[in-house]
Amino acid sequence: MQFGRSYEEFEVGAVYKHWPGKTVTEYDDHLFCLLTMNHHPLHLDANYAGETTQFGKNVVVGNYIYSILLGMSVPDVSGKAIANLEIESLRHVAPTFHGDTIYGETIVLDKWESKSKDDRGVVYVETKGYKQDGTVVCLFKRKVMVPKNNYLDARGGEQPGRPVPAEPPATN
Length: 172
Known about the structure:
GO terms for molecular function: lyase activity. This protein is of the alpha+beta class. The protein contains 5 helices and 5 strands.
């Protein structure tokens, strides 16, 4: 299984469909809110959301959806990244609710070689998140510094630092 890509493996216009999707539970949403100190009742208080909002129920906190999509994209986009340079834009375009399943895909918008180091380049991508019915819920663009093949070769190849399993002891 591939984990990330080198600069040479990215092609402008390529689309990576991230798999599998993630069904968002109430527990996931509430835990994320509590961990990040976002105590807005729209996300945590079913009575408040039901009585006072246009949705009539809790809305999943948007940064959790962004985090899911960012994580989904790692095996296809940034698994070999030297650095995540910039999140250029982040848009939440539709709400997500408990029980929705999030899917994601990323398109390569551009790429360019580093001006200061010849062993790396920058990849510019846009990730789109959508629900089980196809409704787009989140879009973000980011720039990722990725290694070229010569960078990887100089540091031990595809999986640097991976140990070699020892032979098990002989049995009598």
